[in-house]
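Troubleshooting: if your tokenizer reports a length mismatch, compare your output against this known-good record of 402 residues.
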Amino acid sequence: MKTQLTLIILLLCFFSCKKQASTNPSAITKQQIANRLKAEEIFPGQKGEIQSGNYYGQTLNYMVINGMKVFEGDVLLTDNAAQSSLIINSTGRPRMSTYLWPGATVYYTINSSVGSTGNTSIVTSAITYWQNNTLIHFVQRTTQPNYVTFIYSLGGPGSNGIGMVGGQQFIYVSGTTGNMIHEIGHTVGLWHEHCRADRDTYVTINYNNMDPSVQINFQTYIQQNQAGYDYTGGLDFGSIMMYDSYQFTINNLPTMTKKDGSTFTAQRNGLSATDIAGVKYMYTPPPIITFNVSSANTTQTTGYSMSDATVNIASGRTVGQNITNTILTSLEPYSATQSPYIQIPTNLNATIIMTIINGYHPAYAFINVGTGGISGVISGNTITFNGVNLSTGPKTAAITLH
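Known-good structure output:
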């Protein structure tokens, strides 16, 4: 009787679990999970003790595997990283000249182990892809002190630097060209897309569906106590730096879903448009705008200011910074959509000359004056507004650069 009762309970549990799995649209088979794209792991499937340390000027949590400090699965933390100072942005988009590769040029070598294992083509194809689609240049290293070496990995793909950490750093070669495009992304300065501070607006992290040891791989940079900025446009599900919905699942259920509960796939075919725009933003110096205001044959370069300034870049990015005196020396991404307000306490019928440097050129310029407006005369990198009536407070100027 006791045996029969136990059997009945087991059968009820079996059918109950089977029914629950069949009604859960997110549950998939182990074979289906095996066929989905796996995120890069330098030690695939291995786990270790979770520790923390100071890297890139921040306290990071990492896993110690085989004596190495592994961050987010495919990044090895080194002593050079411990000495670096870094502002970490969404998907890791930093904008610090001392941290990025100067001149957007990455010097590199390819270790003989790559060729001897038949992996040269995935490295050269990834390099070519980056050069054809971004402003990053790759030059074979001669005597340059800072460079990256592609070396064959006995495990999975990885890298040991987010951006240029100084000295020799490595990209561990394994997998596909797409994996190498991803790892070069880290070396250039990109972090994983799901680590954005605003990611919870777009996805739900299902921690119950993953091993506790890998939960650190799903922390935002805010949760990692890192400073940063989220590139405009929201989380990019198409980023080559994004995880798949089922990455690190332990029960065939998704570890990440969209807010409507649906799942998504990752891709390693190439950089998304947002990846490319983010790299362009990192490696393009901000425009500097100088102002010269003249009236009645007198040049006035003080006594005016620009507040809530925005400059619209052709890529769709809006940037801005308050202006004091005559030079706008720094532009960072800015969420406002209004045009600049120029406050110039001077005489009537002034002439305003704006000069844009750092490689930007004006494509459109217009100042609202009363019920009408004045279009700027564009010549090279200079905009001239003639006959601006400055007697009645701030004027609204719309400026588009490319």
